[in-house]
Amino acid sequence: MNLDVLFGKTREHLTCLEGTEHLLHRDMLQDFLRLREDARKAGFELSIASAFRGYERQEIIWNAKATGQRQLLDEKAVPLVFELMSPIEIAFAILRWSAVPGGSRHHWGTDVDVFDRRTQGQEDVKLVPSEVTAGGPAAPLHDWLDERIKASKAYGFFRPYETDRGGVAPERWHLSYAPLSQSFLEAYTFAAFWKNISDSELVLKNVLLQSAEEIYQRFMLNVDHP
């Protein structure tokens, strides 16, 4: 598989969701539209907060967090004190919520973060647990999605971060399109992961290389499967 596709450095595999600026894998679009239509009939407005994110955008997020310019959160989304943390603590705190640039599932165009536009405006979406759990504005939508996924009626979409497996924190808002994303994950070998980091100019690059095997196993491979 083309490494530029894996690393989010090309858009050749993407198409734009009509009426938005969101880019999706072209082979996923129709099934997303089917799921959105079913949600509409059930009384929800299934909308995308984030779809494809390229390498450069992910790099901006990573470097801002790695230099203390953007807030770090613990596993319960509580703010951490950057100045009291070691470089390795900073790296692993970032990884709980944000992927290494070049290692995000969002690079593939197969994964989306969703919300219910009926109950939230795009500008109000923070993608935090309180929005998607009981009492949260997107909780009813996600309860409905749970039922569809369990019944195999979600057109191939599933939750890769449904449970806390000690890697990426649970992200109920994150949906992945299994018919494509499973193949991408299988193609993302440790050799590719290492090359991505070693060729980069990321802040905390040396920390990432020193812990590359653990990060690859814990934050790339350690996901829920359909």
What this model shows, in words?
By secondary structure, the chain is α+β, with helices and mostly antiparallel strands. It has a domain at about 5-55 and about 105-190: Muramoyl-pentapeptide Carboxypeptidase, domain 2, CATH 3.30.1380.10. About 40% of the residues lie in helices and about 10% in strands. The protein contains ten helices and six strands; from the N terminus they run αββαβααβααββαααα. The chain has helices at about 5, 30-40, 55-65, 85-95, 130, 140-150, 180-185, 190-200, 205-210, 210-220; strands spanning about 15, 25, 45-50, 110-115, 155-160, 175. It has a four-stranded antiparallel sheet. β1 and β2 (about 25) form a beta hairpin. The two termini are about 20 Å apart. About 35% of the residues are buried.
Write the layout of secondary structure elements.
Elements: H1 3-6, E1 14-16, E2 23-25, H2 29-41, E3 46-50, H3 55-66, H4 87-97, E4 111-116, H5 129-132, H6 139-150, E5 157-158, E6 174-177, H7 178-187, H8 190-198, H9 205-210, H10 212-221
Antiparallel strand pairs: 1-2, 3-4, 4-6, 5-6
Structural key phrases:
226 residues; Muramoyl-pentapeptide Carboxypeptidase, domain 2; 4-stranded antiparallel β-sheet; 6 strands
